[in-house]
Amino acid sequence: MKYDKTIRLKDGRTLRLRNGVEQDARTALEIFILGHEQTDYLLSYPDENDMTVDEEAQFLAKKAASADEIELLAYIGDRIVGLAGIEKIGTFDKIRRRATLGLHVDQNFWGLGIGRALTRACVECARIAGYAQLELEVVAENQRAIALYQSEGFVEYGRNPRGFYSRLTGWQELTLMRLELD
């Protein structure tokens, strides 16, 4: 899936959102690892990532060629400051109309509207791809993210009290959210 848009951020800077391609592999992998270093709200820890630059390049190439999945990179100038993606839940007929959303923004750039821009771009891509529902899981303590998703129309549909086991705090409850697209 192809995507390329430029928007103005709250501080006046320009943010470019575009799908990642093979040549972005090294910097995309770096921002992925940085995000996992900066917060305990993501799925994994930096030391659990064993993806190589070549594997990241293959991942980005596959997403760029896909009609129904995408990996978006958010740029300020030539610096990646966030990434997001949509991925299909599965290909069986009963679930093929559902996709998941995942994103993170470099903490040094929080509060500028990048998370909102990435969320909106993913929703737009999910609609173009023909999905009927976009889903996500968010750590229940992450009230900023939950507020963002709610403001974009996502609704809570459940909780998993033992969704993640944090090395730092123990069990983390996950809030399950969804957005109906049709």
What is this entry, summarized?
By secondary structure, the protein is of the alpha+beta class. It is 29% helix and 36% strand.
| Residue-averaged pLDDT | 96
> How far apart are the first and last residues' alpha carbons, in Å?
20 Å
Give the neighbour order of strands across the main sheet. 1-2-3-4-5-6-8-7
Low-confidence stretches at least 5 residues in length (pLDDT < 50)? Answer: none
Spell out the CATH superfamily: Gcn5-related N-acetyltransferase (GNAT)
- The helix/strand class is alpha+beta
**Rg measurement, Å:** 16 Å
CATH architecture, by name, is 3-Layer(aba) Sandwich
Helix content percent band:
25-40%
| Element pattern in H and E | EEHHEEEHEHEE
Number of domains: 1
**Largest sheet properties:** 8 strands, mixed
Total strands: the figure is: 8
For this structure, the CATH topology is Aminopeptidase
- The CATH class is Alpha Beta
Shape: globular
Count of runs of 4 or more consecutive helical residues: 4
